Amino acid sequence: MNTLPTAAADIALHTTHDAEERDGLTAALTRVALDWGLTNDEAAALAGVAPRTWSRIKDGTFRGTLGQDQMMRASLLIGIYTGLRALIDGPLTHNWPKTVNAGFEDHTPVAMMIEGGIPAMLMIRNHIDALQGDA
What we know:
The radius of gyration is 14 Å and the shape is globular. It is built from seven helices and no strands. By secondary structure, the protein is mainly alpha-helical.
């Protein structure tokens, strides 16, 4: 079962990282949150950080480190985002994560991931991969 691309899995195993890596990862997370129309609270919950930390990430002033859990979350969210872009062409690419989905017990994928954490993110990532025929 392919849950993460190799590079993303490698990133997720590190608990410390250099400033360039951190800045690239947080910029990608900010792009995901913006494109998906996430609130600050939703983005913070998905990233596994406090809302104040998310605010610093979003405005580019975050200089801390991300722990293993946060790196894994970032890798999964970026993978889901990339998978959706490859799978869907058009507005649904960005709307799908906040659209109620019968396959997710009439919840949005975002709500499922906030409530279920990394296991739910893995499930959704695998779902996207399966729709692409990669699973």
